[in-house]
Amino acid sequence: MATWILWAAGALTAGFASVFTTPTNNGGSLLKQLNPLLSHEAQIYLPGSEGFVNATTRWGGATTPTFTAIVKVTTETDVQHTIKYANAHNYPFLAISGTHGTPSTLNNVRDGIGIWLRDMNSVKIHQDGTSAKIQGGIENGKLIRDLWARGKQTVTTGCDCAGFISPLLGGGHGWLQGRYGLPADQLISARVVLANGSAITVSATSHPDLFWAVRGAGHNFGIFTEIDVKVYDREKDQDSWAAMGLTYTHDKLDKVFEIANEWLDEKERDVKLTHYGTIAINPGLDPNMPIFTFWIYWQGSSIPSKYTAPLQALSPISTDFSVTDLAGVNTHLAAAYGMPACWKGFSRQFAPVSLNAWPIANLRTLLSLFGSMPSVFHQASFVLLEAYATNRVGEIAEESTAYPDRGGQLLISPLLGYAPNTTLDDVARRIAKEMRDALLEGTGEKLRAYVNYARGDESLEEVYGYEAWRLEKLRKLKREYDPHGRFNFYMPITK
Q1: Most exposed of 18, 268, 310, 389 (fewest Cβ within 10 Å)?
Q2: What is the structure's pLDDT at 10?
Q3: SS3 1
Q4: Do 275 and 327 contact (CB within 8 A), yes or no?
Q5: Domain enclosing residue 22, as ranges
Q6: Is residue 285 located within the same domain as residue 228?
Q7: For the FAD-binding PCMH-type domain, which residue ranges apply (predicted)?
């Protein structure tokens, strides 16, 4: 009952009765009516302006939400006014931070209002030193560096130029998750602007059911203007990250991943160890088949030989070794600022699969499919083979958050990249689906798709979990907090 009263009060304030009418405002009237309500630093960008282009150019160009205007917000109140205005004039709206989301469901935003959070990017460490307040538009790379400079760290994700909070809402994966759990597990509380424009605090003691839901399905429930998260002291013996990358021709795949499966089977896996692979096409090394690079990461200044020696014995084409810090780990994957994984303007399509062991026969099939795809996809396509440490992730109870895949050990994600070309979009989706299906063949496992990489064609069960109680709880909360489906553009729980 309290939630419905909260919704109704906000809806009346917003003039929500008009939400079912046809939009009547063009950009000029939007400027005239909304602009006076916003803070001095906020701005409204219309199509054709530099600000509009900067906010709407996406990391994955095949995902094409369209906008009537972009509102660059700088305060929570700006977000509230923008949502109330959008509701009153029947505009869809979408939060914009890192623009890395690629599911096809985002294409349902037509002529909407984009709420650009990028200027809301401050980090404040609380006096107790164990938590920090982070604003909603911060990029992952900025957060890593801001905390590191102050002797702190938290569980951040792999790509510098992605937002931090949006991946957290889908659970998140990151370098320190073996020690501390997922990014979502670091959430202490959050300020959330709901679909009616009202703002609330969610935590273990304030709206606890919604607090459960936003840690795994948070894109469905609101815009997060700031959050409190756990942070941890840097420790000298853990500050360094040693990385060894070994590149092989396709014929070495079986032996390499047999070794990796032995690591997964260890009863007490070392929390310092992460391994990560990529499959790509390099005609200079192998003109007929993709090659693959297998990375070993170790939290320390050198990697124990028990991990490196068996792989070096397989005669890789090349070996790369370096020691860096947390901010530098992703340079090996070209995911640091200014590197290819951060470049915008390409079309990119994921097809994620979560598994518990490397499916070696299926990986061979994947290599063949990858090698046989049209050459237009060769230059910018990869398969991401992510195997972060999962020690602490699995210790946290499955039912404690909406994130549904704590048992998953691996994330295998074909990623097709190509120059924007609408005639190639369906081809890329078909090939990516073939690869996804091939990865599951014979494993006996159901598709579990990481929501932050989702394609958009997955079922609710495949994204949010197969337990009936989990889906019913999410649907119930969706009915309470977003009854009109205003947040139904990123892998919606309800249609």
Answers
A1: 268
A2: 39
A3: coil
A4: no
A5: 2-119
A6: no
A7: 63-234
